[in-house]
Amino acid sequence: MSEPVLRLEDVARRYGDLVVVEHIEFSLRPGETAALLGPSGSGKSSLLHIAGLLEKASAGEVHIMGRATSKLSDAERTHIRRATLGFVYQFHHLLPEFSALGNVALPQLIAGVKKKKAEAEAKRLLTLMGLGERLEHQPGQLSGGEQQRTAIARALANNPKILLADEPTGNLDPKTSDVVFDALLNLVRKEGLSAVIATHDQRLAKRMDRVFVIREQRLVEVRKEPV
C-alpha cells in the first residue's frame, strides 16, 4: 500500500487553556479525497492550517510526503507549501486588477515559470473548470461561482500534490455550490490529487472517498451512507 502524502500524528492545537483539537490522528493517501465536517468553531480551519503548515501544532507531528515538519525552519515550511500544497478558501481573494488568466498564471510566474508556459497552464486549468470563454475577464466581471472556480484553478497552478480547501462553496447559493463542487472534484480526480475539503454540507461530503467529523476536539471517521 502506498505511503500517505499527509499524516497527522497525535496533533493538538491549544490557545492557552482553550483546547481547539487534540489527539488528532489522520492520514491521506495518494489520489484520496477526504471531507472534514463540523460546525463553525469546531476547529476545522485550525486543523487545515496545521496540515498546510500555515500554523504550528501545539503538540504532535505533521508529515508531508513522508517528511516530518515540526522542526523545519520557516523557510523550509514555506518551500513545502509552495511546492506541495494548494489552498482554496471560502472567499476567492482574486487580484481585481488581473484577468482570470493572469490570476492563475501569477503563482507560476512567482515560482520562476516562463510567462508563455505559465499562461498555457493557466488556460488549461481554467478550461477544465469550464471557464475557457472567460480567460480575459477580470474578477469583477465574473459571477461568484466563476470567481471561485478561478480560485480553484489558481490553487492547482503550481501542480501541488495535496489540495486543502476550507468551505470552498460556503459563500455560494446551493445551485452554484453544486456546480463549483462538481468542477472541483472532477479536476482533483483528473489531476490525481489528494484533497481534504472542510465543509458543513453533508450532501457534498458523501461524494468524497472518506468522511471525518470533529467531535469534542477529536477527529472521528464516520461511515459513508450511499449518495
Automatic annotation (TrEMBL):
GO MF annotations, alphabetized: ATP binding; ATP hydrolysis activity; transmembrane transporter activity
Family stated for the protein in its record: Belongs to the ABC transporter superfamily. Macrolide exporter (TC 3.A.1.122) family.
Protein name stated in the entry: ABC transporter
Keywords of the record: ATP-binding, Cell inner membrane, Cell membrane, Membrane, Nucleotide-binding, Transport
PANTHER family associated with the record: IMPORT ATP-BINDING PROTEIN (PTHR24220), LIPOPROTEIN-RELEASING SYSTEM ATP-BINDING PROTEIN LOLD (PTHR24220:SF689)
Alphabetized Pfam families for the sequence: ABC_tran
Gene3D superfamilies cross-referenced by the UniProt entry: P-loop containing nucleotide triphosphate hydrolases
InterPro entries reported in the protein's UniProt record: AAA+_ATPase, ABC_transporter-like_ATP-bd, ABC_transpr_LolD-like, MacB-like_ATP-bd, P-loop_NTPase
Cross-referenced CDD domains: ABC_MJ0796_LolCDE_FtsE
One GO cellular component term noted in the UniProt record for this chain: membrane protein complex
GO biological process, one term: protein localization to outer membrane
Domain ABC transporter: 6-227
